[in-house]
Amino acid sequence: MAAIDIGTNTILLLVSEIDGKNIKPLLEKERIARLGEGLHPHKILLKEAMERAFEVLKEYLFDCESLRVQKVFAVGTSALREANNANEFLKEVKENLNLSIEIISGEEEAYLSYLAVSKDLNEGSKKILVVDVGGGSTELILGVGGEILDWVSLPMGSVRFTEEFLHSDPVHPEELKEMEKRIDHSLKDVSSFQIPEIVVAVGGTATTLVQVEMGLSEFSTQKIHHFKLTREAIERQISLYRSKTQKERKTIQGLAPLRADVILAGASILYKIMEKMNSNEVMVSCHGIRYGLLYKNLSL
Q1: Is the pLDDT of residue 123 over 90?
Q2: Are the C-beta atoms of residues 89 and 53 closer than 8 Å to each other?
Q3: Confidence (pTM)
Q4: 125 near 198, Cβ under 8 Å?
Q5: Closest listed residue to residue 287, CA positions, set 6, 21, 25
């Protein structure tokens, strides 16, 4: 079975064997297609962005065919939710690749992220907050065991806020201050959340911060999954990114060059959430929406 998560910045693939109630990953891939590039404020997907995403999906379906995948589940999130021409992209993918993409709501996105983490951690009685900082939106989900207590999907993300606020290179302090003000304002919506016992971050922003913290030259699920990042470590990285040009950031060990422009916004969002939740550390999980998608559709 395979699951594809089509986000604003990245497209992720998970191919798994299903053994009873367990998911056994055979192949995992991440490609930065930046489908949501230039989406705001006109709510239109750019032709070149759709072409990049199409090529990634073509590659993924070739992988699925090679591995004899029986069923592919594909979902689209923030960028496809908001784009007025999303159907144009969906139609092209269906007609040319025979792949159906379901555009999911912020609520469904939150549910799938939480499902993936709760199944992985199996911490029955502890309050877990799952944070998914995406390219176009950020989901926060508070739950205990399999039950969601509170959730919110906020229109803030690494691509969205980079395009909206961070125009100087290196970033001007005033731009950063304006972005931080917007993050604080957005987080008023989580004032009702109870303080969690465990905070778990999923998504590319979080895994990239771990890669930089560990100085990893390439992505390693074994090293990144369940790594604990402190708030101080994220603060240090924010200081590093704000002091460098995009060209200089591309030389940082562990930072994928295609994330160099958006990592400051993503890191700032995660940092502000930790601050709001009075959390000094966050556990990073490599199990995001695509895992939740398999758990849900296969009733695992």
Answers
A1: no
A2: yes
A3: 0.95
A4: no
A5: 25
